[in-house]
Design goal:
about 200 residues, mainly alpha
Length: about 200
């Protein structure tokens, strides 16, 4: 019989729950922000304020159309509810795991299969955000900060800033102890070039 795909289902369920919480909060913020802008820009008081500030009403109308269209096309509220639903399923799974066996091979196989069932409803994963959720799950399950550092993943600065906007499907995130800075990688490359020139 094949080994289960997830060797630690409780950890993966926690990581996924954190991931979907982050996505839900992000889409809820976008949804509320766009609704606020549409209402504010469409209000008569905005037109009066624009006339006093020498700001053309054309731009207000354009703003209303732009933000309302973005809200309609991207449907951030519905996407937030999708992540809320998945977040709830993962937390329910964690609750069920607390009440039952999780250590035996049969239990691990059962919960691994449950993770695959939930994954069937998953949208395209945002890998940088998933790596950050992994780090939060590590911090939540390992109390010793020094030990946790051995397992945390290195996520570049620009990946952290764009974690909700780009999937970064080709990115590979290494553990912090294995991460080499750009300067170290460049130095190693220079040494390899010099070494090949000497032997050539």
């Amino acid at each position: 019989m094949a080994e289960p795909s997830f060797t630690n289902p409780a950890f993966d369920a926690l990581r996924n729950a954190i991931y979907h919480t982050e996505r839900r909060n992000f889409f809820d913020l976008l949804n509320k922000g766009l609704n606020f802008l549409v209402v504010l820009l469409g209000a008569g008081v905005a037109a009066k304020a624009a006339s006093h500030a020498n700001f053309g009403e054309y731009w207000l109308e354009f703003g209303v159309v732009f933000f309302a269209t973005a809200q309609l096309v991207f449907d951030f509220g519905s996407r937030a509810r999708t992540h809320e639903f998945l977040q709830k399923r993962y937390y329910e799974m964690l609750s069920d795991m607390d009440e039952s066996d999780t250590d035996s091979k049969e239990a691990i196989r059962k919960w691994s299969a449950k993770l695959w069932q939930i994954a069937a409803d998953e949208p395209l994963p945002m890998r940088a955000l998933d790596a950050l959720a992994y780090n939060k799950a590590i911090d939540a399950t390992i109390s010793d900060p020094n030990e946790a550092m051995n397992y945390r993943l290195y996520v570049p600065w620009h990946h952290r800033r764009l974690r909700h906007f780009f999937a970064f499907q080709a990115a590979r995130y290494h553990r912090l102890p294995e991460h080499r800075t750009l300067f170290v990688r460049f130095s190693n490359w220079v040494h390899r070039i010099r070494g090949s020139n000497r032997h050539g």
